[in-house]
Amino acid sequence: MSSIRIDGLQYANWSESIFREMRAGDIDAVHVTIAYHENFRETVANFEAWNRWFERFPELICKAGSADDVRAAKASGRTAIVFGFQNPSPIEDDIGLVEILHTLGARFMQLTYNNQSLLATGCYEAEDPGITRMGREVIREMNRVGLVIDMSHSAERSTLEAAEISERPIVVSHANPASWHPALRNKSETVMRALAACDGMLGFSLYPHHLKGGSACTLAEFCQAIADAAEVMGVEHLGIGSDLCQDQPDSVVEWMRVGRWSKTMDYGEGSKDNPGFPPMPDWFGGNTDFGNIESGLRAVGFSEADVAAIMGENWLRFFERNFGPMTP
After folding, report:
1. What is the count of structural domains for the chain?
2. Structural domain includes residue 142
């Protein structure tokens, strides 16, 4: 088992059974999506819901806003929950809410979710004019308070500009190399090199639409893609961001893709014949399967130290450096 296991992104249908499964899988920390298209008040309600879970299951999960919180959770046999947004909708059009939301516990925020936002351009748009005027100001404010910039669903130019504008490292918490599988959300080698240059992170996704071969992708193919990425970025910039949506009904896919912006279904990279969640690969169905990834990484030649880094130590180091206020 690795020294620490951290998943860089999940959006499960949270329940006691999943919390117990995370413990059974020795998952020490998870970056949990707490908002997709919610406005500020709706996001606060989601924080409230999580507070109730922390009260009900204190032996299983705890809130984390720092690397030390993650270490303490591991020491006490619990899973640390780190909050993030897959859209900037929680800040609405008010830059002052960046600090408020960080104070409430948010540590990651995507600048876009597929579409154009007030801050940047999503990967499904035909044109990418880059980071907006408000986006530049919000990046500066996110840097100041310690809210990490996540460009997982953003288009190429916007992502590269975010890396250039930001004074702190940015992440792609859940995506894969486009050279391996050319999904709209997967990232070019140019983006991968930019992430490494700014000391950022790429979290490898297990979501089948992002995998070569989809649900039929093999463990060996997935781990070889990580090995190939290490040649481009360096092992120290790689982690896992599973994008696990465990126990979610197919109706949640519509909320993820459509929110309130469209009256018709946006299928994105999904199939019109099966617009719901695709089947997971047979070697990764949930939180008890992270050990399979560790074994697969060893099989493609990673050392024990590199396996430990990819499975969690890289994320922990990133948390240490980037969750707090920017130092002068």
Report:
1. 1
2. yes
- Averaged over 216-228, what is the pLDDT? 98
Contact 8, 240 (CB under 8 A): yes
Q: What is the DSSP letter of 177?
A: B
Nearest to 294 by CA among 27, 20, 15: 27
φ/ψ of 9, rounded to 5, equals -175, 130
Work out the burial of residue 263: count CB atoms within 10 Å of its CB; fewer than 13 is exposed, 13-18 middle, 19 or more buried.
exposed
Residues 6+ apart with CB under 8 A from 171: 8, 108, 148, 149, 150, 151, 152, 195, 200, 201, 202, 203, 318
Q: What is the mean pLDDT of residues 178-190?
A: 97
Q: How far is CA 200 from CA 5, 15, 163, in A?
A: 18, 31, 9
**pLDDT in the model for residue 180:** 98
Q: Which residues contact 90 (CB under 8 A, 6 or more apart)?
A: 35, 38, 39, 40, 43, 97, 101, 106, 109
Dist CA 169 CA 167 (whole Å): 7
Domain range spanning residue 36?
6-322
Whether residue 257 is contained in a domain is answered as: yes
CATH, residue 204: 3.20.20.140
328 found inside a domain = no
Helix pair 97-104, 133-145: axis angle to 10 deg = 40
Whether 257 shows a pLDDT value over 90: the answer reads: no
Q: Is residue 211 part of a domain?
A: yes
218 pLDDT band, cuts 50/70/90, is very high
Q: Which of 41, 154, 58, 165 is nearest to 94 (CA)?
A: 41
pLDDT in tens, 294-318: 999 999 999 999 999 999 999 999 9
Residue 255 confidence (pLDDT) above 80: no
